[in-house]
UniProtKB/TrEMBL annotation:
The keyword Transmembrane helix does not apply. It comes from Geochorda subterranea. This is SDR family oxidoreductase. PROSITE patterns: ADH_SHORT. It comes from the Bacteria. Belongs to the short-chain dehydrogenases/reductases (SDR) family. Signal peptide: none annotated.
Amino acid sequence: MTHSGKVAIVTGAGSGIGQATVLRLAREGARVVGCDVNPQGLAATRAKLEEAQLSATLLVADVARQEDVERVVAEAGRVDILANVAGIMDFFLPLDELDDATWQRVLSVNLDGVMRMTRAVLPRMREAGGGAIVTVASKASFSGGVSGAAYAASKHGVIGLVRHVAYFYGPLGIRSNAVLPGPVETGIGATAMPKSPWALERAKLAMATMPKSARPEEIAAIISWIASDEASFLNGALVTADGGWSAA
C-alpha cells in the first residue's frame, strides 16, 4: 500500500502507460482520478479495474482544454500525485511536410497539456506542503531521429518544463521528475502511422539499435516508485527507461 491515503491524477488513462498507472496506483492504495479523451478506452480501463476489484474515478477530458483540466482537478480535490501520461504521435512527419494542424495538436497535448495539468495542481500541492509530479517524456526528448518534428519538439519542451518545476517548487516540497521510455506497447494509435516514406527510412537508421518494446506495466512501476515517499530525494531527474537503447 505504497500510496495509501494519497490522491492521484493520471492523464491518458484510457490505454497503455496511463491505464497501467491507474491500475498500479489504485492497487497501491491511492484514490485515483484518471482522464482520457477516448470514452471507449476509459470503459476498457474500468473493466480492468472491476476485474481486479479496484476502483477509480474516470473522466472523459482533453488535457488541451483548460476547462477540462479544471474539471479533473476539481474532482480530485487534494492532489498528492500527478502522472502526466497523455500523449500523441505526429505521423513521423519531417518539418517540410508538417502541416500546422498536426503541429498544433501534438504540441497542445504533449506540451500544453503537461503545462496546464501541472499548473493546475501546483496551488493545491503548495497548500498541502508537497506533492510528486511524474511526467512521461521520451527517448525523443534527446533525439531528433526517432519521430517527426512535432513530437520531438514537444518532448524536448517537456524536459524544460519538468526541470523548471523541480527548481522553483522543490523548496516547497513539490518534486518534478520525468520518465523517458523508448518503445512501449501502447495505444498511441493512428498518430504513429508514418505518412512520409523517405522520412521513415531515415528514422529507421536511428532505430537500428532499438530494443523490444516495454510493457506498459513496466513503465507504470517506475512512475509509481518516483511518486512514492521512497524517492523523496529525487527531484529534477530524467529517468531513462528504454531498455538500453540510449546506451548504444
